[in-house]
């Protein structure tokens, strides 16, 4: 199945962080904030919130984590002054030790201060010694403690990342209290013996667990079983008693819910199986296991489906009268051949002055998905469609994604549009943003449009050729302005009816793909600028932006040193034109074996793209302002952008920044989760595919080096496997990490990152998603 994507600027860039944003269930007004919240519906503004009121909220649910927005709702705070008052109180209470500030900008009651809430934080803190800062809280066990998040490094130890410590805290896995990657924990520090020694500690409390459900393979014994987790960063098994087996059989892939987390590290967590996927290794079992591993939904709630099915299909005359009518203007869609949700279309006509009117028309999803509806809440929860190798997990029910909202040919459709007046040199003279109605004349697959571009013949050849001509000029201007010309490689599969991979190939992006991408980038850029300029001065209207920060200078220097080992001179020192240097490298490596390796490393030097209400710009695209507007069928941030633009157009309206920032953060988190799930499904199919080539030899490139092995990416199919250093028979090899190479201890043979090698496929483990390779020879340069 080919996913519907628009290139690096229209949704292919990365996103940060993982984890859930917890959403509070609504509570009756009289229950929010206890007795102090009973104000006959009147908002609780500045001066009415106190430390005692906040402590009352936290004390009622001492183990609950509260975000800013949840507290504002509980307290009935509705104005900016009130929110600032709450924020200031929370910071004071956190500094005073009554609350714990968590890394995701939320708070929880500090259990060590239970029963001591009468202490005032307005007086100076008493320290153990006069004149000293109070420092980290002290655990009852005697050592200083800090709060942080677990970053699981390997099966021996993890690191806890905390704002309270300049260095990450190393914790042996036996002292983690079964905390997992992303969990928020309290760590008791151990005193270092040497001044420069990395701080170590032990987890004394797991404050917030990211997950209590684990995917794995059942290994049965007499009357009980153990779940061996799929996640490689999981360092423990889960015990399941006879009553919790749920008819699962030995070797099945299952989802287990942990019911007991022991304090004794010698014991195993205990759980019960809540879903059986089938025999491990079987296609559906593995794909369903990946879905469960990343918390992806299996179906829509019945109430959401019912709400979608109840939406009338008819477009009324009253609705048409509110919109600009493009139904008589030549319009078409260009999408993947197997796409079913068409969320963008282009209209083209030449004006009397010789300029061209190009309309970028986007499905008007927010016309059908109303605020506070079940559809809206489910779209927010999912935040994005997910594209696994064999299926799409949509953000919206099929009735909307493939039906009402999809811009199918020969049907009137409601759209939200950006319309440009453009001259022959690709200069934009005017633009307009608003709601429209269109009638698509033709549905093109990318291959159909590419044929028109290459032959100059076919339906709407004049329009397509003009769009392609303008798109190339827009792209040229982007690169002149500093856009970075890196493209990630996308691996595709042809599967049989049972999901077995028959063929693997790298998706090729031609002019037809780039044509669509340029006009989507243009629309996204202009809607962001449109909202940013609506209000003059420093206090701008709230908007959801797609942001991408500049690369880290230290990482750039390290990368430039690395590129030189391949013979490429890349000057990334401070003051240089970074984009120009990176683009030069992209051109020099194009078509060469090291292209993917070097470009992937270059991309890692850059900040991750994310959604934010801060207009921080997009480094990779060289846009000062950029948003996501063009894919509302599959991305929730686009729906937010549509709503905001429409509200600003219709009335004097100011959206709450905190609410949209929270939703942006959630969208970034869910985008990261979707990308991780997609990669896992691709890796599974790559391993399954390469298992049919055991004993065969391939040319590859060294794509990674560790103390125990070197990773090799096979050039032909982009499958990556490992050659274990222990399997190299001619010598004992050691890692020279500083120079990205391994060296034979006796023969001094050197194999470096990026070297071309010949490898043989030794084994492929579908259950572990690993490929073992044997080194046959290195390719002479």
TrEMBL record:
Top-level EC class as recorded in UniProt: hydrolase
Residue ranges of the region described as Disordered: 1-49, 113-146
Basic and acidic residues bias: start-end ranges: 21-32, 113-135
UniProt-listed Enzyme Commission number(s): 3.1.13.1
Domain S1 motif: 695-776
Domain of life (superkingdom): Bacteria
Family assignment from sequence similarity: Belongs to the RNR ribonuclease family. RNase R subfamily.
Identification of the protein by name: Ribonuclease R
Source organism of this protein record: Rufibacter sediminis
Gene this chain is encoded by: rnr
